[in-house]
């Protein structure tokens, strides 16, 4: 996730990632969904997978993703047909917060596009908590 004061490296990496954003190329998350590479799964149902971020920005940092990307490389590509999965992802984020014991106070973040430092082009919700979070974000 993009830090409050993103370095030029992070911004450059985000720009590079964006060049492949809409090629339909698989991302690291496809390998996590297929269990080809390991992840620490927190919650799973037929539509979504939630797993711990490898580079946590808070004591609790979980990513919630649709198992079927269906064109949702980023939130900015959402169409009316995605309404059900978008609602499902948000509700799954609340279930994750409950399971992680942070439902009294947590944050859900979606970085959409290079300007927001998105680095993986498979829609994902960051569920963050377990410490006092600051506002505004960077
Ligand atoms: P974003 O910058 O919003 O696109 O977020 C992508 C997130 O994916 C970052 O917070 C990364 O730390 C996380 N990430 C990348 N690879 C993995 C992985 N193999 N397992 C868990 N999280 C990952």
UniProtKB/TrEMBL annotation:
Alphabetized CDD domains for the sequence: PKCI_related
GO MF term list: adenylylsulfatase activity
Source species, domain of life: Eukaryota
Domain HIT: 28-138
Active site: 124
Positions in coiled-coil regions: none
Span(s) of short sequence motif Histidine triad motif: 122-126
InterPro entries: Histidine_triad_CS, Histidine_triad_HIT, HIT-like, HIT-like_sf
One Pfam assignment: HIT
PANTHER family, per database record: HISTIDINE TRIAD HIT PROTEIN
Protein name per the record: Histidine triad (HIT) protein
Species in which this protein is naturally found: Artemisia annua
């Amino acid at each position: 996730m993009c830090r409050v004061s993103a370095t030029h490296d992070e911004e450059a990496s985000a720009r590079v990632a964006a060049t492949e954003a809409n090629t339909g190329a698989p991302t690291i998350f496809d390998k996590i969904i297929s269990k080809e590479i390991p992840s620490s799964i927190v919650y799973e149902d037929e539509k979504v997978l939630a797993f711990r971020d490898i580079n946590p920005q808070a004591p609790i940092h979980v990513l919630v993703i649709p198992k079927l990307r269906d064109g949702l490389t980023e939130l900015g590509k959402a169409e009316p047909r995605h309404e059900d999965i978008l609602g499902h992802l948000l509700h799954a984020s609340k279930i994750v917060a409950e399971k992680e014991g942070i439902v009294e106070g947590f944050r859900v973040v979606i970085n959409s596009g290079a300007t927001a430092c998105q680095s993986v082009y498979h829609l994902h919700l960051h569920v963050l908590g377990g410490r006092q979070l600051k506002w505004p974000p960077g």
